[in-house]
Design brief:
Number of domains: 3
Number of strands: 7
Radius of gyration: 35 Å
Strand order of the largest sheet: 4-5-6-3-7
Structural class: alpha/beta
Number of helices: 14
Length: 366
Amino acid sequence: MESATSILFEIGKYTVKPIKRQVSYLFHLNTIFNDLRKAKEELVSIQAIVQERVERARMNTEVTEIIVQEWLTNVNQVVADVHTLENKIEENKKSRNYRFPKWIGRYKLSKEATQKTTTIRKLHLEGNFTQVAHRAPTPGIEIFMSSDFEMFESRKMTFQRIMEALCDNNSYSIGVCGMGGVGKTTLVKEVHKKAKESNLFNDIVMTTVSLTPDIRRIQGEIADQLNLKLDEESSSARANRICLRIKSVEKILIILDDVWKDVELEVIGIPFHDDHKGCKILLTTRNDHVCNLMDCGRKIPLNFLSDKESLALIKKIACIIDDYPPLNDVVMKVVKECKGLPIAIVTVGKALARKPLNDWKVAPSN
């Protein structure tokens, strides 16, 4: 008897509560409904706070976390579901029909409302985000490419040599040298674009060094392109942080534009040679001697444009289409004054675009 009583007691523990809960669905609709409405209002308040944080992050060009986007979507869906359920409950409360099927409907509404309340409370807990967004990666330099770039035959050969050097595992530093205005910056930007399209590197960054290097500015530009936040005050601490970030990338290309003298890479935070064999340096300089100082394994010269290439470029820039011999002769004189320098050709071409013949005639004398 004692054994039987014990068994019945255990069965009762697991059956009374479920039965009690089922019965409550029939007789406590108002209480269940009030709990649901209160939970929904609390959730909507939390949603407003999260949405405000997301909007502030978006204004700061940050990207919303996927988990936050999914949470907001789920909240919108459950709020819409609750709104529909509320309408059904109100209709049920207004009805004076006490037939048996009506009680079945009341039971179903109570059960659904209880389930929605459970879902909402779960969303309450999930909405406690420590972070709703992250910094967006800096756009690649290719979006700033010059529309004036032309892959002339002379440039094509130089371009190919640079790309071959980038693919050479034994080549850690490549120097592109040539006179100011010959188009070194434009060319390495195109290299940047091609290397990124070809997935040659996991990351590519480009910064301008200039005659008097500003180390903090250079560090900042590199950090921005690597989506790295620098909180350190000293340049040496910032260099250590950058070095760690670069070493975390298996293959990375650092483009240093407009280098005038030997640059101490470690001061910036750029690992070199054996310190990180996956890091390659591509630099541009006006002086061949700088390539030696920077220990460039490859030195690639960039020469002037030929007369034919110069003529084609200025016609494109100046929008010259008609084959008009008198104008062609004058344009050729202007081209020769530009000495094969793309920067001079582009500047003059833009200034004389769609101008009459007389303006072209006086250009060489100016």
